[in-house]
Design a protein that fits this description.
5 strands, single chain, globular, three-stranded mixed β-sheet, about 5% strand
Length: about 425
């Protein structure tokens, strides 16, 4: 799980915008700067994982009216800008601004209609909202970057569920009784020691995965106050925690940690997952719109994607670790189906639990935690698998087209260097940059 930042800005009134848009780079840059400044002042979309908290933060209609006027003005200007004469970076930012403007206009219109209907608060998911299909579409796009129907998401999730079972079956046969026996580590010092060894191994292989890069130290630590509903881990950059250093926290609730989760949690939360991605952004900070935006499909998708390449990074040498990776991938895959079922099709909690039990039987505490999470955090669980699939699909396309010229390390670094952009925008620009040379 990655870092989540909530930014709150006081509306400062309509800021001046560029009068007349030209293709020339000299005219595009001021427009992009004005868009970023106005976006920061508007603080248009309060971010919250919990759907009810997100709805409670919707401002009064008078604020939405001002936001709508600002985004309509920018939409008119951005529509008139041509790509000729602009740099690759300016084209990326123009497409980012266009993506965000279209999303915000749709969001504002929906929120205004929700306010007019009396600001009803849903119970048990987005399917209980007026215009539930429109709400779910909006939430899916915010968390993944893509427009996906509930039916498309369920079909994708079920394919991934089947893929996980296919990967786990031979590992279980190989491990025999070890695959089902508990593998708890109850000595916290041993957990920390194991993470330190993993860190050393991954760093020796990192250049082949993402090119030459210096990555700051990241420290593993117990997640303070973790409970039965706390996720397995979280990454906190030094600017987001009180510890004065970059950390990833693991859930040691009950005084134990599942040994099968060591490799994949490190890859996801530390290197080359969240910590590497965050470190590169800190090393090469952006002073544009990307610094204001959060796209979970980008960073959770990346962190999920890298878990599939643990072998390249020297991990999964113990089949138990490989099994642990696929066991958690199964959890994420089941959550895709549950999310679309609960929020898109109106599944009850009982229906969700039955689907869970079909694929992950005999773990009632985990079932309760994950179904509750999916119910409360509409569309958030999609960001991992849908995001990872988007990155993987682009990689496969480039591999087919470039053949022997495809360089995985260059692909990975180019993706990270794009910064915080939604995956459809990243796909378009990454493809262009890697095939034009």
């Amino acid at each position: 799980m990655g870092p989540w930042r909530y930014r709150s800005f006081v509306f400062a009134g309509m800021l001046p915008v560029v009068a007349g848009c030209h293709a020339q780079s000299s005219a595009v840059r001021p427009l992009l700067e004005d868009f970023s400044t106005a976006y920061a002042a508007l603080g248009p979309e309060p971010f919250a994982l919990d759907l009810r908290e997100r709805l409670a933060a919707v401002p009064p209609d008078s604020v939405l009216v001002r936001q709508e006027a600002a985004f309509k003005a920018f939409h008119a200007q951005l529509s008139g800008v041509k790509d000729e004469g602009t740099t690759a970076e300016e084209r990326l930012l123009l497409d980012l601004a266009r993506f965000e403007t279209a999303h915000q206009l749709e969001r504002i219109a929906l929120e205004r209609r929700w306010i007019a209907s009396g600001r009803p608060m849903p119970v048990n998911g987005a399917s209980k909202l007026p215009e539930s299909a429109a709400w779910y579409k909006l939430l899916v796009r915010r968390f993944t970057g893509y427009d996906r129907s509930p039916q498309e998401l369920i079909a994708f999730g079920e394919r991934e569920v089947a893929r996980c079972h296919r990967a786990m079956d031979p590992l279980r046969s190989l491990l025999g009784a070890r695959s089902s026996d508990p593998h708890w580590i109850t000595d916290k010092a041993l957990v920390l020691q194991r993470f330190a060894a993993i860190d050393s191994t991954v760093r020796t292989r990192l250049k082949g995965f993402v090119g030459a890069v210096e990555v700051p130290t990241v420290h593993a630590m117990e997640w303070p106050g973790a409970g039965p509903h706390t996720p397995p881990g979280i990454y906190l950059a030094n600017e987001d925690n009180p510890y004065g250093t970059d950390v990833f926290q693991f859930n040691f609730h009950g005084g134990r940690f599942d040994a099968r989760a060591l490799d994949w949690i490190y890859l996801h939360e530390a290197i080359p997952g969240h910590h590497l991605q965050s470190s590169l952004r800190r090393k090469h900070p952006t002073n544009d719109l990307r610094a204001l935006l959060t796209y979970p499909g980008n960073f959770e998708g990346w962190a999920c994607y890298v878990e599939y390449y643990g072998t390249e990074l020297g991990l999964y040498t113990d089949p138990l670790q490989a099994l642990g990776k696929w066991e958690w991938d199964l959890v994420r895959s089941v959550r895709v189906v549950l999310d679309a079922g609960i929020h898109g099709l109106g599944w009850s909690r009982e229906e969700a639990l039955r689907y869970w039990e079909t694929h992950i039987p005999g773990q009632p505490e985990l079932a309760d935690r994950e179904v509750t999470r999916v119910t409360n955090w509409a569309a958030q669980a999609l960001s991992y698998k849908v995001g990872a699939h988007g990155i993987s699909a682009l990689r496969e396309r480039l591999q087919r087209e470039l053949g022997d010229r495809f360089d995985a390390a260059r692909f990975h670094r180019a993706f990270l260097d794009l910064g915080m952009v939604p995956l459809p925008v990243a796909e378009q620009h990454l493809y262009q940059r890697l095939t034009e040379h």
